[in-house]
Amino acid sequence: MALRGRLRGGGLGIEVSERDGVRYLHIGSTDIQSAMRVDRPYDLELAYSRCVFAPLLFAPVPQRVFIIGLGGGSIPKFIHHQFADTRQTVVEIDPRVVPVARTQFLLPPEDERLHVWIGDGAEALRREEQAQDWILLDGFDGSAQSDGLTSEDFYAECAARLTPTGVLIANIWSTAKSYEAQIDRLRRIFPGRLLLLPAGFKTNVLCLGFAAPPRPLEWGALRIAARQWQARLGLPFDQFLEDFKRLNGHDARRLMP
């Protein structure tokens, strides 16, 4: 792995590396925080970032998205490219990350559809006046998720700030010591409305908490929706359906939150 650049001072080390045509972002460790295929910069290179869009199987295209944790900006860049009517607010705690995302990972400049704020994501969400269709929790401190983004009180606050068809999307690591506790907290906040989606065979698990019971849940309807979204976005929605079976109740007819 050929190191391209390193930035230190005032916090965790930030490194950008490149191998086999893929550029990687590392913050505070060798773990990969973001990745971009240089000749296809709008594609989603990492499995977990593709899984973020699985809620489209159950909920309408979001009009407002609130993201905590920028990294290389792959997800807001994809939303900005694919959904012209979606407005995004992205909150990043480390001001050094933003110029790296823009210069090395082609995060679009701010406009009426994309706002990037520097600060604490939990505090920024508390100050947000408008309800959100999607709230994405993707903030990590080196190799661990911030404690402030994993408490039951904060999950409840996220749930209260969703629209009636809204979804909380929490990216967590199955290898973390707090994994089971985080899942238990989310189940209490979203009883009967939580789906878990493992990102392939990686450690990331996307926890989808729905403001209202997700629909449809029958495999036939889900397969139709998966084909439609896969054709539009080029993401593996058919594989999402298979991966849902690994961590959620199901039978031959339906998926069970």
Explained architecture:
A hairpin with a 4-residue loop joins strand 14 and strand 15. This protein has one domain: Vaccinia Virus protein VP39 (Rossmann fold). Helix 5 (152-160) runs parallel beside helix 6 (179-189) and helix 7 crosses helix 8 (237-247). The protein has eight helices and 15 strands. It is globular and about 45 Å long. With 257 residues, it is an alpha/beta fold.
Descriptive labels:
257 residues, Rossmann fold, 7-stranded mixed beta sheet
Tell me the major beta sheet.
7 strands, mixed
Low-confidence stretches: none
Tell me the number of structural domains: 1
CATH architecture label: 3-Layer(aba) Sandwich
CATH homologous superfamily, by name? Vaccinia Virus protein VP39
SSE order, as H and E? EEEEHEHEHEHEEEHEHEEHHEE
